[in-house]
Amino acid sequence: MQKILTIACFVLACLQAMAQNVAKRLEAVDDYIIEENYEYAEKLLIKILAKDNGIHQAHYKLALVRWQDGHPKKALEEAVIAVQQKPEEPNYHALLGKIWVELNEGQKALEQFDAALLIDSLLPEALLYRGDYYFENQYYQKAIRDYKTLKKVVSAEPQIYHRIGKAYKADGQCNQAISYFTKCLQINPIDFETRWFLAQCYFEIKQYTDAVFELNQLQKLNPLDEQLCLRAQCYAWLNKLDLAKADMLEAYSRHSDDINYLIPYIAIEERLGNYEHALHLADLLIAKFPVLRPLQVLKGRLLALSGDYAKAEKSFRLAINQIEEQKTPFVIEAKAYINCLNWLSQGLVKPIAHGGCDSMAIYSYVFNQLAGNAVAFDCDKEALPYFAGKANETHNLRQKMLLCLGMIKRNEAPEDLSNWPLLMQVLSPLNYQQFEYHIADLLLHHVGE
Of 123, 79, 122, nearest to 101 (Cα)? Predict the structure, then answer.
């Protein structure tokens, strides 16, 4: 009996020593991972598993090493084994889910994230990985939900604020995005990417002075030409056209073949009234991108603004050549521009002192918001119900457009448009940085009789 007890104690001591040795080796693996020395970490883990293939921590860490080293398929094998050996460990499910994401198996990834969060609803890794998956697949509200839950677990982490802000921005909620980007910068003022997104958000909500401030900081810290391009557009909206052109010329000098720089440059030259040069740049774009029909509409606008209505109409008709019967917003809009050109050429419009009543802006705004909703050009009868005594009521976009068109066609635009808040919503500043709006200001400062 004594002999049996002695042997048992010896075996137990050996097992404890082996367990301690494995634990030390796993700790060494952690150090290698921190140092990003994945080669040594992998070799050590393979040695551990060669002696005992049932050590689930080793399979998990080997999966982690191979994933971080850019080998998701090899990592998958080990992550699956780790989950099979210890399914109650949420971190194993989270890592397996992340690997499935990289292998473009979204449904399998979500199943693993959900399994991890079912075990631990506040597991940071699972919340982060699932939030990132939702963001990349444009489920922005779901991403925001996961990121906000993660924020409760990991407080004052700037990258979480950055992610929430980025998701809000992608979802078109710039005001909310600004709040989170600002919090991120309060913790890490030299986060260039966050400051760049913040500047873009200010631009989107038309707070151009704030956008310029952020862009100035970026130019001091991490200057890039895309920042100059955006700052030029801000200056243009602030009517600082000399500053706008200076920034745009500098950026354009290094990106003369890039449509993202040419379009804003054309817009600034247009604002300056340099139609000849703007047309030259438009021709360069058309030569480089001949299949982009909106560029013909852009050229048509410039020709119309320079007073050459015949060539402008030719350019508009070229833009919709062989697609005239389509009911897309683009075709309908181009036809509307041709219709308005006829008003101009027949002398049916005249300049007005206060400006701002812009039928083209109305057309463009409505067609962008109500895609595919055709609008009749002769809106007299439909406009009548909304013309008298209803300017301060809340109407839908179509009703607002009809009201404006009714005013235009009767030459009864108010002298002070600032007293017409609903009308001003429709006549909001034109979106020069997106060439899909093409010729939204063709009749700027004109109104029909």
Answer: 79
Cβ partners under 8 Å of residue 217, min gap 6? 195
pLDDT digit string, tens, across residues 229-243: 999 999 998 989 999
Say which amino acid occupies 119: I
Tell me the two tokens of residue 165. 């802000």
Q: What is the pLDDT of residues 103-153, one digit of tens each?
A: 999 999 999 999 999 999 999 999 999 999 999 999 999 999 999 999 999
Residue 203 CB partners (closer than 8 Å, separation 6+)? 211, 230, 233, 234
What angle in degrees, to the nearest 10, is found between the helix axes of 293-305 and 309-319? 170
| Neighbour-count burial of 240, counting CB atoms closer than 10 A to its CB (0-12 exposed, 13-18 middle, 19+ buried) | middle
Distance CA 303, CA 266 (A): 13
Tokens of 214: 């952020």
Q: Which two tokens stand for residue 283?
A: 């021709």
Residue 297 makes CB contacts below 8 A (sequence gap 6+) with 315, 316, 319, 333, 334, 337, 438, 439
Closest CA to 78 of 50, 100, 56, 59: 59
At residue 447, what are phi and psi to the nearest 5 degrees? -145, 145
